[in-house]
Amino acid sequence: MKILVVLNDPPYGTERSYNGLRLAGALSRREEVEMQVFLFGDAVGCAIRDQKVPDGYYHLDRMLTTVIRHGGQIGCCGTCMDARGLADDLLVDGAHRSTLEEAADWTVMADKVVTF
């Protein structure tokens, strides 16, 4: 089964992206699931590598890496990255600058789409 999780919220300040990545991580561990995560808007900040957060807080970059390690794909809206001044080399290994066209392709190919 192909599942697409779409995130829109910033990495911190709300828990929507956190909960979306928790679900994506749990689903990516299932053998029958092909996981794709697409980051729009402020959610592209979730994919910035080596985030420094206070002790006890979650690391969304590490959560994305878990999805990637289990075969998932992470697409980051290139237009959204540009609007926030984010260069490709800031992304965690395995995440990539993407396009609206790829997001559309992933949506059409997915059996289920979950948005946060």
TrEMBL record:
Gene3D superfamilies: DsrEFH-like. Pfam families: DsrE. It comes from the Bacteria. This is DsrE/DsrF/TusD sulfur relay family protein. It comes from Ferrimicrobium acidiphilum.
